[in-house]
Design goal:
With 426 residues, the chain is α/β, with parallel strands linked by helices. 25% of the residues lie in helices and 26% in strands. The protein contains nine helices and 25 strands. The strands form eight sheets. A five-stranded parallel beta sheet has the order 5-2-1-9-20, with helices on one face. The protein has a five-stranded parallel beta sheet with strand order 11-18-12-13-14. Strand 12, helix 4 and strand 13 form a beta-alpha-beta unit. Helix 2 runs parallel beside helix 7. The longest helix has 19 residues.
Length: 426
């Protein structure tokens, strides 16, 4: 390629080699001519983590080797992979600045750097009891440390706590509680453990229908639920959560989900809100400030679950929109906030919930109307097997950008609102 041709090639830079960033690189490399577009993916390391697997690590259901693979092995030929930490984005100058001084000019930028637990944001969380009696499972290191702590836990007050919403995979704390209940029963320890679920929400979950359903499951398992709890600090000497309204919750073992925040470079670049999420149009993921910046997945401020399914479905809509956008045409795709989440409930069963910006979780079958085989808002073994099978699908189909036979937008076929009886039975 001569120098004139090189100068004509445009640059797409994707910040983040996680679920959304990797899918976008794979899908767009096949849709953009190499003579016209150069694609670069930037991440701080070469480790791609299958984060849904963290949930099973504390209970011995998943090994660290099963959740980590090389990032670059999932990127296609024709995509440059740059290992480096982003210092900031100069959005006016269309250039990404890395901490080591490298500069990456772009014509189009996709921010897909996700969200990260920040225990440093709650006073006392990183005190003397961190990784002694205070644990998290939203990192592999935390999940492994919690596995060791659970193996030594023989009774007392086990508190599962959410600091503030939004969080990555909002059903995960409930799943952990259900799995802990089953795990303790299996070891004959349940009668010696008081399980407490502490949330800043007014119920078990964000969506009212699912909240009533999942709250009933906590009641059945004799889990004490403390709602509307906004933690102000952790008293690590007294081993106690303290809220802004001066409520106190003691613990022997605390499993906390720290405040989740977007990447710090987003704030340094003037691109984020108070939690470092990029404000975007919720249907196209295009920045509200810059016409050549998109934010996909957990990095954006869209009012949807910060979940892998949302990243997957939104990428499917994004790709065609992006091609229209760079061609100077109006984007015709509109992402509806579709989320599809398995909820492990213990004893080799799970629920499946399906919802979007406007529609509450429904009952029925998924993905095929009438046939299923997965059932919505109902505990079944098939749903559990579906969750376990998803890890293979993730590595072998989703990340490489291969077609997944599921509609990106929420389908109403074969679904109906939960009746009051179904809500109670669920």
């Amino acid at each position: 390629m001569d120098e004139t041709a090189k100068r004509a090639v445009r640059n797409l830079v994707i910040l983040g080699g996680g679920t959304a960033g990797t899918m976008i690189a794979n899908k767009l490399r096949h849709r953009l001519a190499r003579t016209e577009w150069h694609i670069t993916v930037v991440d701080r390391d070469d480790e791609h983590h299958y984060q849904p697997g963290y949930l099973f690590v504390p209970f011995g259901g998943c090994s660290p080797e099963q959740v980590v693979r090389s990032r670059h092995s999932f990127l296609p030929d024709g995509v440059d992979f740059v290992i480096g930490s982003v210092d900031m984005v100069n959005a006016e100058g269309n250039v990404v600045l890395l901490e080591d001084g490298r500069q990456l000019p772009y014509d189009q930028l996709v921010i897909a750097t996700g969200t990260t637990p920040r225990p440093d944001q709650t006073p006392g969380m990183l005190g003397l009891e961190w990784r002694r009696s205070i644990f998290d499972f939203y990192t592999l290191e935390g999940a492994e440390a919690l596995a060791d702590a659970l193996s030594r836990f023989d009774g007392g007050r086990l508190v599962v706590h959410i600091t503030e919403m939004p969080i990555k995979c909002p059903v995960a704390p409930l799943e952990f509680t259900f799995l802990a209940d089953a795990w303790l029963r299996g070891r004959g320890l349940r009668d010696r453990v008081e399980l407490v679920y502490v949330t800043p929400l007014d119920g078990a979950f964000t969506k009212p229908v699912a909240s009533a359903h999942l709250g009933g499951m906590l009641d059945e398992r004799k889990v004490l639920v403390e709602t509307d709890f906004m933690v102000e600090r952790i008293d690590d000497e007294q081993k106690m959560l303290v809220s802004y309204d001066e409520r106190e919750i003691p613990f022997d073992l605390l499993v906390t989900i720290p405040l989740n925040m977007g990447a710090d470079f987003v704030a340094r670049s003037g691109l984020g809100d108070e939690l470092n999420y990029v404000p975007v149009d919720k249907h196209t993921q295009l920045s509200r400030k810059f016409d050549n910046i998109f934010a996909i997945g957990d990095a954006s401020d869209i009012p949807a679950s910060k979940a892998g399914s949302v990243a997957h479905f939104s990428v499917e809509i994004f790709v065609d929109n992006f091609l229209q956008h760079i061609a100077g045409r109006a984007m015709t795709g509109a992402f509806d906030g579709h989320a599809n989440c398995f909820v492990e409930s213990g004893d080799d069963k799970a629920l499946l919930i399906d919802f979007n910006y406007d529609t509450e979780p429904l009952t029925g079958k998924y993905p095929l109307p009438v046939v299923g085989p997965l059932e919505l808002l109902k505990e079944t073994r098939v749903n559990h097997l579906g969750k376990l099978a998803f890890r293979w699908i993730y590595w072998n189909v989703l990340l490489p950008g291969r077609p997944v036979p599921l509609p990106a937008l929420m389908s109403m076929a074969g679904k109906h609102p939960a009746t009051q009886r179904e809500k109670q039975e669920a």
